[in-house]
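Late entry, written up from scratch paper. The run itself happened at the end of the previous shift, but nothing got recorded in the book at the time, so transcribing now.
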Amino acid sequence: MVKINKELCIGCRKCVDVCGFGALKIEDGKASADNEKCISCEMCISHCPVEAITIKETGGEEKHKLIKNWAEEYAKTNGFNVNPKDKVLSVVIEGLIAKQEKFGKRYCPCRIQRIQENICPCVYHKDEIKKDGECHCQLFVRQKKSKLKLIKNGRM
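Output as recorded:
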């Protein structure tokens, strides 16, 4: 869930354009958020040129749940899955939360440099999933082909 500082907002629409969930719009020349639609992906935050958007503070369990929900929705939208191994998934999510709290952005826990390209989902994740079956930090994994699909294609 995001909070918009109307005094800082310049109404540039960058946040609106990057939001894939329709959670942001421009009203009276300023961005406004519909937190019922917001999944806390923080793409709007990383694209705001004047840092007018911040994340609303939530508790640890709530942060974990928000990031997990975001990751599941993002994966579904992009044709892959979150890691089905609960322990791995939990460790990666905790790493994302720690980076967010320490550096103010949700940097990928497996990347050292704190640069825009390494904000989760990092720019490398789709190529890594395609090549290796998972992204480097193991948050996202390739969808498994169903047995039925393999049988239909004569591969089983």
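The two ends are 45 Å apart (CA to CA).
(Scratch paper discarded after transcription.)
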